[in-house]
Amino acid sequence: MPNSRIAPTTLRALLAASLVLSGPGAGAALTSPALAFADEKSAPEHSESEASATAPAENEPADSTEPAPAEDASAETATVPAEDASAGTTAPAAATSAHAEDAEPTSEAGASAGTVAIVRGGDRTEYGSLTEAARAAQDGDAIEVSGALSISEPVTVDAGRSITLRATADTTITRAEQFPQEGGKAAGMFRLSDGASLTLEAADPSSGKLVIDSERTDSNDAVITLRGQSTFTMRAGTAIEGAQCSWKPWGAVYVREGTFVLDGGEIRNGFAMRNAAVAVEHGSTFEMRAGTITGNRTSYSESIVWTKGTVRMSGGSIAGNSSNVSSDGVVHVLEGGALSFTGGTIGNNNPNNTFGVRVDARGSLELGGQARFEGTDRVSLAQGAALSFASAPEAHTTDDPIEVVLAGEWPAGGVVATASSPEVARTALERLSVRRAGTPEKTASVGLDAADQRRITLASADVAALFDLLDNPFADNLGLRLRDELTGADALDGLRAKVEEHFAGVDTPERRVRLQQIEDIERYAAYLDAHRDELADTVRELSQLGDPWAEAQRTQQGYQFDNLDATGLYLKPGRVNEILVYVEADDPSKLSVAWRQVGVTDTNNYPSLNLGQKSGLVNGVNRITVDLTGKTYGSMLYLRNDSTENAARVRIEAADAPAVAMGAADDGAEAASANDAGGTGTPAGTEAGGAASAGTPGGTEAGSSPALGTSLGEHPFYEHDPAHPERFWTFVQDIRAYAVRAQAGQVADMTLIQMGDRGSAQFAVSATAMAKAYSGISSEAEAIAYIEKSNTAIQNRLEFYWAFDGFDPAQASGPNAITTARVHTAFTRTVSSPSTMYAYGRYFHMPESTAASFLSGDDMYGWGMSHEYGHMLDNNVIAVAEETNNLYSIAGSRHGGIEASRAAGTAFNPSAYYHVNAMNATKRRDAELAQMAADPNYVPDWMNGNVWGTYIWTHVTTWWNGLHFFDDWDYAGYDFSASPYTEEIAADVEAYGAYGATLRILRGNPAAVKTIEDLASNATTGVKYNRMAVAFTMGTGYNFAEYLYELGERDLAPEVLEWCAQYPSMPRKVKYFSLNTDAQIINGAKTYEEIVGADGTVEPELTVEIVGNALRVTASMSSDELTRATTAWELYRDGQLVGFSRDGAFELTGDVGDGDPASFSVVAYDVRLNPHTELAGDDAGEEPGGGEEGGGSEGEEPGDGSGGEVTPPEDGDGSDGDGEVTPPEGGGQEPGGGSDDGDGSGQKPGGDGGEGESGEDSGSGEQPPAGEDGEGSGESDGSEGEEPGSDNPGNGSSGGNQVTPPQGGSDSGEGAGEGGNRPGTSADAGTSRAEEDGGKLAATGDALSLLMMVAAAGSALAFAGAAIAARIRRTRS
C-alpha cells in the first residue's frame, strides 16, 4: 500500500465499531492481521486510472458477535465477564484521574469557572464550590449555579435533606482532574442517601440549561446513585450527558433504593457494556413523565433501562438508542420487575433484535391507551411473563399494531394478555400482532378466551393445525409443490370460511395476515403451474468446500480463503429487497446467503466491499430482507456451505416474484428506478439452458426468469469446466451483449469468473471490463484457445504456490493437504483506499486494469498480485505483515521472470522483476558486508534506524537468501545423528524448498510450534523474528539464528541462540548469497568445479596500485566463464580480512603502506559459495577464507548451467514446466512502480454503519487492511494495537518495546514509488545512508557473546560465544 498510515485511534475506533468479530474464531482472529495492502503500479499497458470514480467514504455494517447470555443485573451480583464479549465497541478510556489518596489538596473553586450560591428565603450566599454548598445546604434550600463547574469529589446529599439544584444560566458540571477513583476508575458524581431528595431544574430552560457531563469517563458507579429511599428528580432543561460505566449494569442513574422521576430532563449519549441509562432495583421506582432518553449505546447487553423494581412511563420518549450484540430489550424488565407503560413513546431505536421492551419470566408489562411503539420496536414476552392492557391501546391501529414476540414454549390455549374489561380486550386484539420466536418467526394465532373475554389466549390445537397449513404450505423444502390440502378445487375457499369463522367478525392483524396468506397461496399455485419447470431449473446444488475459518486454522493462515458459490443473481440498489431462499440440506444451519458489490462500488473506500451475510438458514423458506436504499450499485448474490459433508440444494426468488410474473404487482413495483445500475434488466442472448453450459442464467428479455421479481437481476458468470472449454464461447457472446446493457445503466455491471481445474480461483469483476478484454476473440476456436491458456496459467500459479507453501496434492486431508477453499479476487475500478491493492478477510483486491492481462494468462506473477496472495497464505506462527508475505512476491516474481525471460530468449534481469526496494536492500547488504570485512567490530543495523520502509526489505531479503540457498542443497552428507534434524525434513526441502519444508513443520508438528513459541517468548522485542530464527533452523537443518545474528539481528533471545546451536553452522558463507547471485545461477552460471573439473585449479589474478591516498586492488578471473561463475570476493592483507566486493575491485584508504602486492590475497566464491581455494594449485599455498567451517561442496548438487547462455536454462528455477509467458513491456511489473493514481494514500478506512444482515463474514476474524510495503507492517501477535497504521509498525514483536519510525528521513529512499512516503520518511529521500555517510553504515547492536573473530595467516573465520556450539566440518568428496 502507499506509504500512508491510518491513525491508531481511528483504526481502533474502526475495529470497535465496524469489525465486530464473531464465532468460535473471534479470539484467535485477533492474533493475525486481516487486511493487507499493495500498491504497485501496473505495467504501462495497464496504466489507466483505477480510482477515477471516487466517492465519499462510506461506513459498512458491523458484524454481531455471538449473543451474550441474558443475566440478571444487580448491585450485589453484577460481575465483569472474563473478556469483552462485544469486540465491537470502542474500548473505554481508562480514567486518568489520580487516586484520591495520591491527589494533592486542591481548592475546587480554583477549578470552577462558574458561580454557586445557596438561596434560602430571601438570602443568597456565595460558595466556592458545589460540593461545599451541598454540604452546607439545609432542607428546602436551592443551590443556584451557572457557568462551567468542576467538582473534585462526589456531591453528597443525605440526612433527609431536600435540595434543588437550579441553573440560572447555561451550566455544565464535570469532574475535576483530581476527582477520586474507586476500584481503579472514577467515582460517581452525585450520591443520595438517607431519604434525601435532589431536584435538578433550570430557572428558564429557554435561556439556560443544567448539564451534568460525565465526559465518557469510565466508572464503576452511575453518575447519580440513590440509596436509603432517596428521591431524584430531573425537570425540563436538565441533562445527564456522556455517562460511561463499562461493566457494571448501570449508567447514568442507579436507583438502588428510592425513586427517580424524569419530568422533562434528558439522559443522553451514554455508553455501557451492560446498561447505559437507568437501573432500578427491587422495591425502587423510576417514573418517566416527560423528557427523553436518547443517543445511548450498549454493547455487551442491550438494555438502556432495566428494572427489577417498578417503572411507570406516562410520557416522554426512549428513542434513538442502540446496541449491537445481545438479545435484551431497550427496556428490560427482569424477574420481579414491572413496567407500566401508559403514555409516551418507545421506538426508533436500533437494538440488535428490534425489541423495544423485553419482559422476562415473572416480570410484567402493563400497556395503556397512549403507549406508543415506533418504528421496528417490538415486545419480547417470555413464557411466564404477564402482559396486560389497562385501557384500549389508542396509539395503535389494526394497520399499525403492537407487535409481540413470544419467547419460549407457549402452550396452545395459553394466556398471552389480560385486559381490564372485555371491551378493552377486544380492542387490544384488533391492534395486536403476535408471533412466535424462532428462525424464522411464525405468526401465533390468538383470540378472546370464550370462558373469560378479558383474556387474550393462544388458539387451540385444532385451530393451530389449521393455521399451520397456511404457515407451511409446501410439500417440499424447495417450494416447488404445494401440500395436497391446498390444491383441491374448493380448498382455498374452504380455508377462507374457516378463517372468518375463527375470528367471528373481529378485524385483527392476524385475520388480515391469514386472508393474505390464502391469497398468496392462490397466486403461487398459478405461478407454479405456469413456471414449474423454469423454477426447477434455478435450483442450485451447493459446493461442499468446508468452513473457511476452520480451513484457515488447519493451514495456519491469518487470512482466509472463501467458499462462495455464484448464483448468477444480484440485488438491485436503491431499494429494500426481499428475497426468499428455499433450502433443502442435511444441515441447513451451515448455509449462508451473502452479497457484495462487484466491479464498481459506491465509494472508493474498502468497506464498500464488505460482505453482507445472513447465516443460519433453515430447511424450507427463508425470508431475507436486504436494505440497499442508500446504494447506487447492485450487489452480487452468493451462497455458502460451511461444511464438507452437507449435501444442500437451494432455490432463490424475489418475494414478489409470483405477483410480478402473474401480472399482479403493485403499481410501480415492476422495476426499480431507471438509473439504479441494474434495476430492470436481465442478461441478453442466453437460452434457458445456458446456465448449465456456460454458467449464465436463462432468459433473453427482461423478466425472462420468473423468479426475479423487482428485487433481483441476473448477471452472466462463467465456471470453467476443463472438459467443455467450448462453453466459454457462449459466455463471451453473453458478456458482450450484457455489457452493452450495463453501459446503458439497464443492468448491474458485474460478472464472476471461476477458474482452475477444481474451481479454486474466483474473480469478481465488471462485465464491461471483461467484454473489452474479450474483444479480440472472434470464434469458438479462439475462445477455446484463450480459456485453455488462461486456465493452464491460473492452475499452474495455484500449484506453484501450493508447492512453495509445502502443500501436498497427494494428501486428501491433514495439515499439509491443499485447501478446498477458493481464492477470491475482487477487481474494481473504484476502490483505492487504503490502496488499489490490499488483502482483507477472505478476499484480496486488485485494480480492474490488471484483470485482463492476468485472466488471459499473460501476466501471472506481478509483484502486487503475489504480495496480496502472500498475505492470504502467510503462516500465523511466523507471519509479520508486509514482511513475510513478500517472500511470496519474491518467489512469484522469480518464477514468472524466468518464464518470461525464457520465452523472450533474454537473460533474467532481477531488477526487471523484483521490487526496487528488494534490489536496494541487496545493494545495502553488499555495502554492509564490505563494512563488516573492513571493521571486525561493525554490526549491521537489523532495524535500519527503525525506518519501517527500509528494514522490511532488509528482513525479507535476508530470510529469502538464507532459505533459498538450501532449496538446491544436497543433504546426503548431513550428519543427522549430530542434530535434531531428520531425513524426512531434508526430503521436504528437496520437494518443496526450505520455506515449504518449514511451513510443513509449523502445520504438522504442534510440539515444534510450542518449542518455537516458548523460546521466542523470552525475547523482549522481535518475538516473531525470534520465532523465524528457530523455525528456519528446524527447516534448513542449519543454525539460522547464527546467520541472522551475524547479519545484525541482535534481538534474538539467549535461549533462542542456545537452542539453535544444537544445529551445525551454515555450510557455506550464505551471507554472500543474494538475489543477484541467484540470477547468475538462473542465467546459467556454473560452479568452479563444473568449469575446471574436480582436479582443476582456479587462480585469480591480482593487481595493486596506489592512486593518491588510496590503494586500489583489483582481482579478476582468467576467463569469462569463471567471471560469470564468481559472485563474491574477499580481500586479505597479511592474512587479515580487509575487504569484500562483488566485482573484485577494492579501494583501501588511510594507512595504505607501500602497497606490496605480496601482502594481499583474495578468495573468490562461486555462485554456490564454494571458495576458489578448494581448487587452487599445489603451489598456491593455503589461502585465507575458505568458506564457513565445513565449507566444501560434499554432496551438493551442482547448479544447472549452460556455459553462459543468456537464456535461462529450462529448470533454472528448480521447477518443471515452460510456461508461455511474454515478458511485459519495460521488464514486466515494474518493481517499485508505486500505486495507481488516486490510490487513497492518506485516507483512513473506518466507521461503523448498518448495511446487511450481519456485516462482514461472521467468524472470519477480519480486521482492517494491512498494506504492501509502506503500510501496516505491524504483525498481530496478540496485541490488538499492532495494526496497520499503528504507532508500532511491527518489528516482529508481540507487544511492548516496539520501535516507532522516527519522523525524519528515510534510508535509501525505501518506499519510493509506492504512491507516497510512509510517515516518518522523507519525501525526497533518494540517497542511502551509506552514501550520506561516505559509504559507511553506523555500527549498531549490543555486546552479546557472539563476537566476530578474525584468524590470521590463512586460518578460516571462526565465531566464539556462549550460545554457539562447535561446528562440524564438511569436506569435499
- Name the structural class: alpha/beta
Question: What's the story with the biggest beta sheet?
Answer: 18 strands, mixed
Helix content: 10-25%
pLDDT averaged over residues:
79
Secondary structure: number of strands: 60
How does the overall form come out from the CA principal axes?
A: flat
Beta percentage is: 15-25%
Query: How many helices in DSSP terms?
Result: 29
N- and C-termini, Cα separation: 50 Å
Give the low-confidence spans: 1-112, 665-702, 1178-1183, 1186-1264, 1266-1373
How many whole angstroms does the radius of gyration measure? 37 Å
Structure description:
Helix 7 runs antiparallel to helix 8 (509-537), helix 12 (727-743) crosses helix 14 and helix 22 packs across helix 23. The protein has 1373 residues and is of the alpha/beta class. The protein has an 18-stranded mixed beta sheet that branches. Strands 5-9-12-16-19-22-26-28-30-32-34-35 form a twelve-stranded mixed beta sheet. The protein has 29 helices and 60 strands. It is 23% helix and 23% strand.
How would you summarize the topology of this molecule?
Layout: H1 8-18, H2 26-29, E1 35-38, H3 108-111, E2 115-120, E3 123-127, H4 130-136, E4 142-151, E5 155-157, E6 162-175, E7 181-182, E8 185-186, E9 190-192, E10 197-202, E11 210-213, E12 224-226, E13 230-235, E14 238-241, E15 244-245, E16 253-255, E17 258-268, E18 271-272, E19 278-280, E20 285-294, E21 297-298, E22 305-307, E23 310-313, E24 317-319, E25 322-323, E26 331-333, E27 338-347, E28 355-359, E29 364-374, E30 378-382, E31 386-389, E32 402-407, E33 415-419, H5 422-430, E34 432-436, E35 442-443, E36 446-448, E37 455-458, H6 461-471, H7 491-503, H8 509-537, E38 540-541, H9 548-555, E39 565-571, E40 576-585, E41 591-597, E42 612-615, E43 620-627, E44 635-641, E45 648-654, H10 657-661, H11 690-694, E46 712-714, E47 717-719, H12 727-743, E48 751-755, E49 761-765, H13 767-773, H14 780-804, E50 823-828, E51 837-840, E52 843-847, H15 851-855, H16 863-873, H17 885-904, H18 910-913, H19 916-934, H20 948-964, H21 983-1004, H22 1006-1016, H23 1023-1036, H24 1040-1046, H25 1054-1060, H26 1075-1082, H27 1088-1092, E53 1101-1107, ...
Parallel strand pairs: 4-6, 5-9, 6-10, 6-11, 9-12, 10-13, 11-14, 12-16, 13-17, 14-17, 15-18, 16-19, 17-20, 18-21, 19-22, 20-23, 20-24, 21-25, 22-26, 23-27, 24-27, 26-28, 27-29, 28-30, 29-31, 30-32, 31-33, 32-34, 47-48, 49-50, 50-52
Antiparallel strand pairs: 1-51, 2-3, 2-4, 7-8, 33-37, 34-35, 36-37, 38-45, 39-44, 39-46, 40-43, 40-45, 41-42, 41-44, 48-49, 51-52, 53-54, 54-57, 55-56, 55-58, 59-60
Helix pairs in contact: 7-8, 12-13, 12-14, 16-17, 19-20, 21-23, 22-23
